[in-house]
Structures are given as C-alpha cells and as structure tokens.
Design brief:
Alpha-D-Glucose-1,6-Bisphosphate, Chain A, domain 4; 7-stranded antiparallel sheet; 7 strands; elongated; alpha+beta
Length: 174
Amino acid sequence: MEISASSIVRHPRDRVYRAFRDRLPEIAAYMPNVKRVEVVATEVLPDGVRLHNVWYGKGEIPKIAQIVVKPEILVWDDYAVWHDSAFYCDWRIGIRVFNESFKCSGTNRLTEEGVHTRVTLLGDLQLDLRDVPGVPRLLAGKLRPQLEAFIVKLIRPNLEETNVALGRYLDANP
C-alpha cells in the first residue's frame, strides 16, 4: 500500500533539512500522536548521516486488529540515511511485533519553493499475515487490507504532523 504526504514548511530548505535530520526528539514535543523520539545511533557519513531513532506513538488500536496487534505496534524503529548534498532521506521502519511480516520504506525529499520548503514523502507498506501467530490463514487475506489501512492511517498523520510540528519548532526556535 502506498504512503504519501507532501506539505510546505514555511522556512528555508537548509534549516528545515537540518532540523528534520538533527532535532526529531525536540520536534516530537510538538506532535500530538507521538509521545517521544529517542536517538539510538548516529553515524556520520561522507555526505550525510545514518540514524536509528525509536518512535513512541499514541493511538487506539481498532477492535478487529486487537487479535494480532498489541500496544507494542505503537513503538517503531526508524532507520534513515540523510544525503546532505541532495537534501533527501532514505528510510525504513521496523516494528516490534511480527517484524518479518512487515515491510515499510521510502524517501523524504526536500525541495525549495521560493523561500519555503516542500517536504515530499513517498513510501510503501507491505504486510504478510500468513505466518503471524494468532491469525487464522482464512482470515489473513481479509485482515491484511484492514491492518495495512490502520497502519497507514497511523503513519500518514504522523508524517504530515511531523511537517507541521517541524514548522512550529522552527517558528519557536529562530
């Protein structure tokens, strides 16, 4: 299932990029669906940074999904490689439950629009529930689109809200 989000942050691209890359734990305080973001690992590369962040989300799990989705799904690992000269980031998300059945990755691109910045995220989410404990094989096909939609519904607002929160953070920290 495709994940996409695009929005304008009313600040210069270099400033948006550096804050997005380096200040997520502080930006998380401006996000209503995120409890916190922790930086687990940072590796400086010749043209950027490789980061491992852990996100702690907030949200209610739908009743139908509760048979396989536990609260641990609201914690995810964000692996990102930031490419400084081209102003983009390749990322992959890992979840703490049935991780082998979950694939989610994509790219964030930051482009100049006048004095502002367009942040465009394109990603892909794929679930394979056939080997997830507690999911009857007969239900796996029916449950998959509902779970994908739930996860995208959880992820997409956070992606969009990240850009809004980023703008508020930059407004508050000139």
